[in-house]
Amino acid sequence: MALRRMMQEIPKADVVITNPTHFAVALRYDASEMEAPVVVAKGMDYVALRIKEIAKEHGVVTMENKPLARALYDRTDIGDMIPGDLFQAVAEVLAYVYKIKGRVKSS
Predict the structure, then answer these.
(1) Which residues make Cβ contacts (< 8 Å) with residue 36, sequence separation at least 6?
(2) Alpha-helical regions (H) of 14-58
(3) How many CA atoms does the CB half-sphere of 30 hold within 13 Å?
(4) pLDDT recorded at residue 103
(5) Start-to-end CA span in the chain (Å)
(6) What is the pLDDT of residue 21?
(7) Is 94 exposed, middle or buried, given 0-12, 13-18 or 19+ CB atoms closer than 10 A?
């Protein structure tokens, strides 16, 4: 089932961006493999809650950013790179995540 596969990708994410209750989008970025961050999971309502729970269980940082979560949810599908006009906002989120996790990823 596609939902199960999506949920299995969440531990590999770098961050889950949320609108507190309705939306969650998990992103992964590896500069050595990707041009831009990729959506590994996304959901709304119950699925968003499960994404956040799985992220918490695996130590994936969750950040609340209502407009970014909504834009990513509306404009991407699983496996998509983020849209170019959202790259700056996502880059700032990832930079913060890497800082709090105490690691630096190359760009």
Answers:
(1) 29, 81, 82, 84, 87, 90
(2) 46-57
(3) 5
(4) 61
(5) 34
(6) 82
(7) buried
- Report yes or no on 39 lying in a domain: yes
Give pLDDT tens digits for 19-77: 988 999 999 999 899 999 999 999 999 999 999 999 999 999 999 999 999 999 999 99
Distance separating alpha carbons of residues 63 and 65, to the nearest angstrom? 6
What CATH number should be reported for the domain holding residue 81? 3.40.1690.10
**pLDDT at residue number 1:** 57
In a domain, 107, yes or no: no
- Whether 21 is in a domain gets the answer yes
Q: Judge contact between 9 and 39, C-beta under 8 A.
A: no
Residue 106 in any domain: the answer is: no
Where in the sequence is the domain holding 48, given as residue range(s)? 2-101
> How long a stretch of residues is the chain?
107
For 86-102, what is each residue's pLDDT tens digit? 999 999 999 999 888 87
